[in-house]
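Extended Data, panel c. Modelled sequence:
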Amino acid sequence: MSEPHSPTDETVADSGDQWDLCLYVTDRSPKCLRAIENLRRACDEYLAGHYHIEVVDLLENPRLAADDQILAVPTVVRRLPLPIRKLVGDLSDNDRLLAGLQLRPSGSTAA
């Protein structure tokens, strides 16, 4: 489990990059709702004001899954900054989420 983020810590948002994330879900399943909440919480903490999250419900727009080659939901796709990264699951493992999307500042380690 990671330590709470200190206000004095450098965040990834300090670099000025704008993050473009797309979260693929199906309807309002509990797992998908957790993924939305967990992703928003991490972005608020580490990217404050430097991110955009598009939530795509594949039951309403199934063709959109082909663009990002989505095979499972929930899946988050980091489109920007490059390179593209994908992470599958409800994003409840904060360390895995931060590492998978490369949200940790360089040189940062989990305690």
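Confidence is low (pLDDT under 50) at residues 1-11. This feature is highlighted in the accompanying rendering.
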